[in-house]
């Protein structure tokens, strides 16, 4: 068996000492894995994704990413380049005046040449169904359009792992179907959080449920 891309060893986390969210949680994401993460609101799904990229740190246990144990902020810099997180709220991800600037931000920070960045922006927007949106004002977009721009900012970084928190939220049916097709064509391993079971059935191949601070494997249609 190949080495996992992401692995949790007995990870525990709580926002306060008396309200634990994760308790001795074990998790692994293998190359090519497409994992649905389900559970009721407040069960810790978003928390788990944020722990992967170091936005939160475990109270105990160990997180491995890309073959290394990750502890401090410096450890997670590399993880954030290689694992792209789509936030649950698009407005948390978008902060530039125009769509092109938002999508270009990550590749520019990776010091890619500007001609290459322009190509990445155009191709990525085309892939999510927003070709020609480069000069649109981000805050004037609809909720669904913002969602797709936020996804484009993640895809433009060309990460090895995708961590998608409610990617279809706010999308109409045609946009959802385009997203399903796009995700099916992508090579990255991914973890997908969604309350839409039909969307998960079409985009993932295994499912885990968060319950009582731990993860349990379930049938994808459960």
What does this structure look like?
This protein has 222 residues and is α/β, with parallel strands linked by helices. Helix 3 packs across helix 4. Strand 7, helix 6 and strand 8 form a beta-alpha-beta unit. The longest helix is centred in the middle third of the chain and has 14 residues. The protein has one domain: Rossmann fold, CATH 3.40.50.300. It is built from seven helices and ten strands. Strands 6-7-8-3-9-10 form a six-stranded mixed beta sheet, with helices on both faces. It has a four-stranded antiparallel beta sheet with strand order 2-1-4-5.
TL;DR?
The protein is of the alpha/beta class and 222 residues long. The chain has one domain (6-218): P-loop containing nucleotide triphosphate hydrolases (Rossmann fold). It is built from seven helices and ten strands.
């Amino acid at each position: 068996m190949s080495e996992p891309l992401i692995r949790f060893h007995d990870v525990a986390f709580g926002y306060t000492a008396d309200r634990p969210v994760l308790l001795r949680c074990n998790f692994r994401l293998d190359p090519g894995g497409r994992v649905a993460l389900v559970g009721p609101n407040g069960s810790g799904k978003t928390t788990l994704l944020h722990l992967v990229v170091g936005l939160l740190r475990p109270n105990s246990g160990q997180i491995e990413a890309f073959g290394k144990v990750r502890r401090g902020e410096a450890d997670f810099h590399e993880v954030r380049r290689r694992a792209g997180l789509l936030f649950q709220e698009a407005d948390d991800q978008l902060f530039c005046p125009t769509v092109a600037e938002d999508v270009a931000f990550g590749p520019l920070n990776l010091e890619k040449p500007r001609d290459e960045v322009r190509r990445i922006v155009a191709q990525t927007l085309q892939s999510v169904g927003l070709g020609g949106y480069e000069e649109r004002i981000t805050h004037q977009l609809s909720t669904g359009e913002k969602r797709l721009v936020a996804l484009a900012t993640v895809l433009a970084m060309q990460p090895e792992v995708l961590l998608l928190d409610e990617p279809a939220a706010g999308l109409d049916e045609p946009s959802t179907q385009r997203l399903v097709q796009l995700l099916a064509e992508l090579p990255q391993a991914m973890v997908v959080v969604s309350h839409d079971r039909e969307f998960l059935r079409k985009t993932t191949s295994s499912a885990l449920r968060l319950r009582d601070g731990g993860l349990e494997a379930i049938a994808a249609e459960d």
